[in-house]
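We emphasize that the prediction below concerns an isolated chain of 325 residues; any contacts that depend on oligomerization or on bound cofactors are therefore not represented. The input was used exactly as deposited, without trimming of termini.
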Amino acid sequence: MTVRVLVDHRAGEPKLVRHPEKAHRPDNPIQRKPSWIRVKAPNSPIYHETHALMRANGLVTVCEEAACPNIGECWSQRHATMMIMGETCTRACSFCNVATGQPDALDAGEPNRVADAVAKLGLRHVVITSVDRDDLADGGAAHFAAVIRAIRAAAPATTIEVLTPDFLRKPGSVEVVVAARPDVFNHNLETVPRLYPSIRPGARYFQSLRLLDSVKRLDPTIFTKSGLMVGLGEARPEIMQVMDDLRVADVDLLTLGQYLQPTVKHAAVAEFVTPEGFEDYAKVARAKGFLLVSATPLTRSSYHADADFAALQAARNAQAAGARA
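Result of the prediction step, given as a token string:
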């Protein structure tokens, strides 16, 4: 088992060294956030009930691990994005707050515990994500499939969205996840190709695009989705090109949100994009043909995912009706 020592961001729990690979980097001072990014501290009873259920089932959430600013709102509505395959990632992206290092072995009981929590929360829609597991031969694809099957058995009315790693150099892995038939397959490009060496060094832009394209080719009925952060130093034409690339891969839903720097060791914020700037991006994306676009400063991949899924279904039905007319 990997032993780490500093403090974790979660209140009341032991503090751990989350990012040893970043320790040697110079500090990037964290800028004061503009007024449109402020959020209230979580304090509702339902938030605490959701927290207690996650702990009782021994589950990890990306809401906590990635220090998501929307955790108070989402957990107060019993929405939680569950992070499977442990809490330690084998990558070292410079934007991400998830701990990095050598992960523990997979927990064979995790799929059933996730399914139990989904059933107890009474979720209409659930998002399942994971750390990167480059140490596994299939990147964790079979574990994703097991979680999907367990949820189908425990909560058959719940729709399932997966947010997967890129399965880089893991041939056959995407086929395993697609065969389990999630309702939405999400994989985030995160940023523009030029910034991959500094922001997402362990990934390859065109591998991520190929992954999304492969899902659509394997099963066109599965909705595909991808997300981008802005404020990392990208230029507007670069965002336009990424949108075009995603449309070539027939991606249905695009999310865009503001990058927020987790610690002084992470990549610095180059710009705080205004709400008007996000609306401009959204208008362009809708014109490019995405079925649905979610673009606000606080948008994250799983933010309002249940409502987005309903909107996706409605948009696809309307599109099909128009084609028949």
